[in-house]
Amino acid sequence: MALKSTIFKAELNIADLDRGYYATHGLTVARHPSETDERMMLRVLAFALHADDALAFGRGISDEDEPALWRRNLLGEAELWIDLGQPDEKRIKKACTRAAEAVIYAYGGRAAEMWWQGIASQAARYEHLSVWRIDDDALAALGALAERGMNLHVTVQDGEITLADGERSVPLVLQRLK
Asked: Where exactly are the transmembrane stretches of this chain (predicted)?
């Protein structure tokens, strides 16, 4: 018998002063059995950083043809493609040819550094690709906020991000690789 996804509910209160975006989103996040709390919370963070009424979670791990998150227009065409981890050059090319904007949030410590060293020259040819890295300590702190029912407050100001759940606060600074 196959394991089923675990469902998490989150109320996400966003105050993004950098974008001038202020909204509350009710999210239902399905965590695949092979996904960690850290990766799932990175998806929530990516949602907060790109929040929009049309932004949606993709099937991600369970479907190679969809990203972790994406925003599609009324015709179903991808405008924004967000991937997590260390995608290969073929996946990056797919993201950049299918969407007007592609973003990667890399994680994985030393492995992420080595991945970037190996992929940076190929990634340089894609003008509308952004690559960010989150360090392991920040990712672990983010994962510690995971609960089946969450009420999260996200503040973004001058590139600094704070996620808080009322009891704990996690300050984050993402490293821009591209």
From this structure: none
- Interval 130-166: pLDDT, tens: 999 999 999 999 999 999 999 999 999 998 999 999 8
Instruction: State residue 46 phi and psi, 5-degree precision.
Output: -60, -40
Measure the CA–CA gap between 94 and 108, rounded to whole angstroms.
Answer: 22
Q: What domains lie within the chain, and their CATH numbers?
A: 6-176 (3.10.640.10)
Cα–Cα distance for residue pair 91/64, rounded to 1 Å: 9
CA distance 67 to 165: 27
For every residue of 107-134, DSSP letters joined together read -STHHHHHHHHHHHHHHTT-TTEEEEE-
* Selection from 153, 103, 143, 107 nearest residue 126 by Cα: 103
Which tens digits make up the pLDDT trace of 91-115?
999 999 999 999 999 999 899 999 9
For residue 151, what are its two tokens? 């009420």
